[in-house]
Automatic annotation (TrEMBL):
SUPFAM superfamilies to which the protein is assigned, alphabetical: YceI-like
Keywords from the named record: Signal
Protein name in the entry: Lipid/polyisoprenoid-binding YceI-like domain-containing protein
Stretches assigned to the Lipid/polyisoprenoid-binding YceI-like domain: 24-195
Species name: Solitalea longa
Stretch forming the signal peptide: 1-23
Keyword match Signal: yes
Pfam families the UniProt entry points to: YceI
Lineage: Bacteria, Pseudomonadati, Bacteroidota, Sphingobacteriia, Sphingobacteriales
Length: 195
């Protein structure tokens, strides 16, 4: 039997190690969805964010996320559109109340910037802290999501976050001269695809 030379042995050892790949990826806005859900004295409501962008820098090994070095998402306030139960849009009057409450002229964007990763579980569950800025007020919030590497190398991050509008000094919107009031609690559902 021939003896293996050192170079061949080294190559075989290196090939048996998991390969870590750094990937900088951009948010695919047409394949991503952010929904803001809330309540009111009349009925539950929801708004879809139509314009968003973002960046992701991850270290992955095969289909597993090993670390997230950077993640940011920017949402345009005046692209938020109120949706009916059937998926059709309400008239723009509903949206104007949202833009007014969020002071969209002075603060046209909502931003999410990853600050710290606490843990990444074997199933892709990510426990993190993010700096969220709404209506000019920035707060650090705990966020939990699931990150998955797709077969084509894209990364999908899904989850939801509940908080109060007043946490960001936002007065819950009112309509019909105050006859309809929205609740303070909202939930943001996110389904983000980075390519």
């Amino acid at each position: 039997m021939r003896r293996m030379n050192f170079r061949t042995l080294l190559c075989m050892c290196l090939l048996s190690l998991p390969i870590l790949v750094n990937a900088q990826q951009k948010l695919s806005p047409n394949e991503s969805k952010v929904m803001v859900n809330g309540t009111s004295t009349l009925h539950d409501w929801r708004c879809k964010v139509e314009q968003l962008s973002g960046n992701l820098d991850v270290e992955k090994s095969g289909t597993t996320i090993k670390s997230i070095k950077l993640m940011d998402v920017t949402m345009i306030v005046k692209s938020m559109k109120s949706l009916k139960e059937d998926g059709k849009y309400y008239d723009s009057g509903m949206d104007k109340n949202v833009y007014k409450a969020l002071d969209a002229d002075k603060n046209p964007q909502i931003t999410f910037v990853l600050k710290k990763i606490n843990s990444i579980g074997a199933n892709g569950e990510v426990n993190a802290i993010a700096t969220v800025k709404i209506a000019g007020v920035a707060k650090d919030l705990p966020v939990v999501g699931v990150a998955k590497v797709l077969p084509n190398g894209s990364v999908k991050i899904t989850g939801k976050k509940a908080f109060k509008m007043t946490d960001f000094k936002v007065d819950p919107p009112k309509a019909m001269l105050g006859a309809i009031k929205t609740g303070d609690d909202i939930t943001v559902d996110f389904d983000l695809l980075f390519k």
